[in-house]
Every structure is written in structure tokens, then in C-alpha cells.
């Protein structure tokens, strides 16, 4: 095999999951989620350095080779390419202090705190959609409360949560700029909030289904399609939310326990531990029915190599004239726990993956109530499938 230029453009497009060497330290890293990243490995002063060049297909094979040639040449001269790139970035920041540039810089600094490194784009989207199109080129040192008020006024009463997030992100970006030594008005977001006034928007809870009505809906999901199976599994285990269900992998299930990775649970990366889910006999039966559909390890794949979308589940309920949405099954389960069982509060909250105590308390109380939750999961499965409905007595669990 050739020492360099080993990969072809055609191979890169269809590369399987794993690491693929193009030669001379250039690698293509293909992830399980279908994304890919170019990585360059060089040695500087006897120390190996690994730097990301960019993602594919945004960065083509030809462009990745050109970039790698440049950074490899610097390494051969004894200069650290990663530090050189950082120096170039700092120089660019000194020349361009626009809100857009500082937003990108703040996001990069914050990525490690965001779930999935912020790849989904939710952190940036309020600014990208509602702020940066009008204010992106404004020097951040010129940004004031009137600028912020003017861009957020159109959504202040109609999209209150989005507007609130945009204000929060702007505060973070301004603090980041201040840390870089720029003269910015840190109070501008709060002043803008005062100018905008109180929002008329009234927050609404996600519609849920009464727990007494769930058996009838569950029975309607009798076709062994991926949508029906995923919805049934979500109803049985609503504490996980829909994402872990949709991204469920066969290697996460062992006997009657499903271990959900922390990054798939709601919460920031690194702050959420893996969550063990006790699987009822009915849940295990559904997983067995879904196994023949598995692809690339995912239990609920779609035709494009990923997994079924959250909208697939929501639209199914919408098409059937239901006001309730998949996320609402969490409320259904929690209400059933309160009204039809005497489960201790901590156990009931653990059923929906709520952590009610501080991290210090949880550090000393080293239990996730798995055995107690296993009993409750079986009783909940009996209810939703129309099985025995006697009151669950859990006094012994207290």
C-alpha cells in the first residue's frame, strides 16, 4: 500500500465506522452516528500531537491533505502546529471583535460543558436564528441594550423561552469577551430585559395522557413496526425520555437491565452518570421483537443509517388525534406512582430519572433503588397491558 494518499474520495464517502489512515499522519475517524472527522498526528520535540482539522464532508479529502501538508511542515521545523493555530486564532480575534466571532469563540470554550459537545446546535440556535443575522457584524464593544431589545422584541411575547435563552447566551458571550480584556457592557442583557418588560407568554406543560387511559392506547400499538415498538417501550420506560429509546443499542441490554449512557440522559456531559433501567417482562418481549430490525447496533434504525426521529413518535400520536405527546408519558407514570402506589418519594422520582437530592447526598447514598424500581416497572407493565391492577404495597421499601 502507498505510504501517502491511501484513501480515495469514493472510499471516504462510504467509509465504515473506525479510523482510516491516508498516510503521513492524516486519519479519517468515522463515528457511530455517521459523522466523520479529519485528524492529523505529528511528532514535535519527541511528543506526539493530535489535532482535528475539520469534519467531513465540509472538509474534503483534497482540502484535508493540503491542510495536513501545511501543519506537517511546521512540525518538521520544530513548531507545534496546535499552538501555531491557536496563535493565528488569537490574532484573528484581535482584528475581528464582532459579535459573531466572539460567539463562536465563547461556544468553543464552552463545548466541553455541553451535552454531546454541543453538536446538536441547540446552544447556538437562539443566537444563530434571532440575533446574529442582524447583529453578527457589530463589534461586541459597541453592543448595547437597545440593540438587544430591537432583535428580541419580535419574539419576546410569542417565543418567550427562545428569547430567554438568547439573553442567557448573550450574557455568556459578553462575559467571555470581558475575560479576553474587551471593554463590553456586561449589564446590557439585563437592561434589555428591563426595556422589553414582562413577557405575556404563559408557559404550558407538555400534554400528557391520563394513566387510566394508557392501556387502551397501548393496545392500539399492536403492529410490530418500529414506531409501535418504540412507543410501547417508551410507555413502559418513560423515565428515560425518547432519545435513549431511539438510540438504544443491543450491547446496552444485559438480562433484565438496560444501562443508558450518561450522554444520552438529560443533563450536561460529564455531569450525568449512566442510568440503569430495570426491564419488565413486557419490555424484554418488545426488545426481542425489535431485534430483527437492528442495524449498526441500533435497535430502532432508520433507512439512512441513523435512528428514527423524535418527530416520528410525536406525529404518530398527532395523526391519531391525540393531544398528548411522547414526553408526557413521564407525567402519566409519575401520577400513577402517586395515586396508585405507596412508593417512597425517592423511589418514585428515580423511576423518572429525577435526582431530588444534592450531589453530596447522592455521593453518600450509593443506591439507585434498582430492586424497588424493578417491582414498580413490573406493576406499571401490568397496568399498561391491562393486567392485574391491585394497589402496589411498597411499605417494606421505605
UniProtKB/TrEMBL annotation:
One of the Pfam families matching this protein, by short name: Phage_int_M
The family this protein is said to belong to: Belongs to the 'phage' integrase family.
Domain Tyr recombinase: 204-377
Organism: Sulfitobacter litoralis
InterPro entries in the record: DNA_brk_join_enz (IPR011010), Integrase-like_cat_sf (IPR013762), Integrase_catalytic (IPR002104), Integrase_DNA-bd_sf (IPR038488), Integrase_DNA_bind_dom (IPR025166), Integrase_recombinase_N (IPR010998), Phage_int_M (IPR053876), Phage_Integrase (IPR050808)
Record's keyword annotation contains Isomerase: no
Protein name: Phage integrase family protein
Cell cycle found in the keyword field: no
Keywords attached to this entry: DNA integration, DNA recombination, DNA-binding
Amino acid at each position: 500500500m502507498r505510504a501517502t494518499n491511501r484513501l480515495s474520495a469514493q472510499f471516504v464517502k462510504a467509509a465504515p465506522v473506525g479510523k482510516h489512515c491516508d498516510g503521513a499522519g492524516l486519519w479519517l475517524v468515522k463515528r457511530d452516528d455517521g459523522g466523520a472527522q479529519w485528524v492529523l498526528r505529528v511528532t514535535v520535540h519527541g511528543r506526539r500531537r493530535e489535532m482535528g482539522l475539520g469534519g467531513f464532508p465540509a472538509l474534503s479529502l483534497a482540502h484535508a491533505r493540503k491542510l495536513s501538508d501545511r501543519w506537517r511542515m511546521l512540525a518538521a521545523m520544530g513548531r507545534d502546529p496546535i499552538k501555531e493555530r491557536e496563535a493565528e486564532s488569537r490574532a484573528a480575534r484581535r482584528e475581528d471583535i464582532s459579535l459573531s466571532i466572539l460567539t463562536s469563540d465563547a461556544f468553543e470554550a464552552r463545548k466541553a460543558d455541553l451535552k454531546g459537545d454541543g453538536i446538536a446546535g441547540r446552544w447556538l440556535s437562539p443566537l444563530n436564528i434571532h440575533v446574529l443575522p442582524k447583529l453578527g457584524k457589530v463589534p461586541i464593544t459597541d453592543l448595547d441594550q437597545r440593540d438587544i431589545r430591537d432583535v428580541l422584541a419580535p419574539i419576546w411575547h410569542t417565543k418567550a423561552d427562545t428569547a430567554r435563552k438568547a439573553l442567557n447566551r448573550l450574557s455568556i458571550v459578553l462575559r467571555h469577551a470581558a475575560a479576553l480584556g474587551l471593554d463590553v457592557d456586561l449589564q446590557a442583557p439585563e437592561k434589555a430585559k428591563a426595556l422589553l418588560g414582562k413577557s405575556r407568554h404563559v408557559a404550558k406543560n407538555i400534554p400528557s395522557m391520563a394513566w387510566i387511559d394508557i392501556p387502551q392506547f397501548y393496545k392500539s400499538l399492536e403492529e410490530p413496526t418500529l414506531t409501535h415498538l418504540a412507543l410501547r417501550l417508551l410507555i413502559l420506560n418513560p423515565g428515560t425520555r425518547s432519545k435513549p429509546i431511539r438510540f438504544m443499542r443491543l450491547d446496552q441490554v444485559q438480562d433484565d437491565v438496560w444501562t443508558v449512557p450518561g450522554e444520552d440522559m438529560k443533563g450536561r456531559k460529564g455531569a450525568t452518570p449512566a442510568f440503569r433501567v430495570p426491564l419488565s417482562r413486557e419490555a424484554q418481549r418488545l426488545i426481542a421483537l425489535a431485534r430483527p430490525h437492528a442495524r449498526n447496533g441500533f435497535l430502532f434504525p432508520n433507512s439512512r443509517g441513523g435512528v428514527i426521529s423524535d418527530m416520528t413518535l410525536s406525529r404518530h400520536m398527532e395523526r391519531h388525534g391525540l393531544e398528548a405527546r411522547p414526553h408526557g408519558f413521564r407525567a402519566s407514570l409519575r401520577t400513577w406512582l402517586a395515586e396508585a402506589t405507596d412508593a417512597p418519594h425517592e423511589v418514585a422520582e428515580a423511576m423518572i430519572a429525577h435526582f431530588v437530592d444534592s450531589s453530596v447526598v447522592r455521593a453518600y447514598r450509593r443506591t439507585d433503588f434498582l430492586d424497588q424500581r424493578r417491582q414498580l416497572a413490573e406493576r406499571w407493565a401490568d397496568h399498561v397491558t391491562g393486567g392485574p391492577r391491585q394497589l402496589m404495597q411498597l411499605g417494606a421499601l421505605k
